[in-house]
Please model this.
Amino acid sequence: MNLETLHADERAQLVLGLLFGIAFGFLLQKGGVTTYAVIMGQLLLTDFTVFRIMASAVATGLIGFHLLKHAGIVRSHVRDASLGSNVIGGLIFGLGFGLLGYCPGTVAGAVGQGSLDALFGGVIGLLIGTGIFAELYPSLNRSILSWKPVEKKTVPELLGLPEWIVVAGGVVLIVLILLLLDMFGL
Amino acid sequence: MNGFLALPLWSPYITGICIGLLSILAFVLSDRPIGCSTAFVKTQGLIERCFRGEKVGNKEYYQKVTPRVDWQFMIIPGIIIGAFLSSFLSGSFAIGIVPPLWADRFGDTPALRILVALAGGILLGVGSRWAGGCTSGHGISGTLQLSVGSILSALCFFIGGIATAMILFGRIA
Model:
């Protein structure tokens, strides 16, 4: 089966999207991060489960993605970046993250395990919030979203280092941080 | 195998490695980074279209993110099903409205919890679209591609989240 044919097959992609969602939701719930106390524990810096999961996912993905990219099997999806979009949007997101205690993926997982605050607060709020953003988008797009664009879009470009060194360095850094967390009993 | 699937909790490292592999598989089979916040825009646009008709498609943002049932849309119903299956298999599925940690600090009035969750959800919706992604889209899929914008966003998600949580729970004097 040709991968490009598969990518263009809308019906197959619909089924794949559902399957990826199911697997992702299953893993988020098994990892414990669909639970309010676990996410808030991370934000209160008393429980590092969220960090451990994200860091091991990124380390695994860093190696696999870049090997496959090198082999020409996957392509890069790095998006345009700017301080106005990524930093300001990120901080607004963080404020909501702390108030809700779930993020857009884990809020859906929390709904699946029966947490009604995630459904009536989180999901409804997210729908209202994205609606507000769609309304504001034309004026934001012409002003703040493009404020201070980031010219060098990837870390290897930014550091001026070969990709494989940054990948290896990133994985070593992640493993070291995880070992330190264990050492300090966090 | 059944016993493993029925465990209430997996090691965060095993979970993380599996999510990393899943993310790679999404790049291979679907040529897409796994992300969750786009689905909410699409759902919102589809709902809005029910009330306001086809002209919703003329909105500038909906020309960028088309409101339709597609791969990105399906992620969210998938997550709900997957989390339900996982919690059902381990017997941890439970209907609840006020999380115990919240109740310890703010009491068990559902209205207060829902109100704050709603405010949080709205900010999350605005912020995720403003930043162009969420904890999965930027935090995992973007970061593993070494995207500077994604790493910047992920840092800000946690800086903002930690500050808010610390103030909310009185950890900052």
Observations:
- Chain A touches chain B through 125 residues (CB under 8 Å).
- The mean pLDDT of chain A is 96.
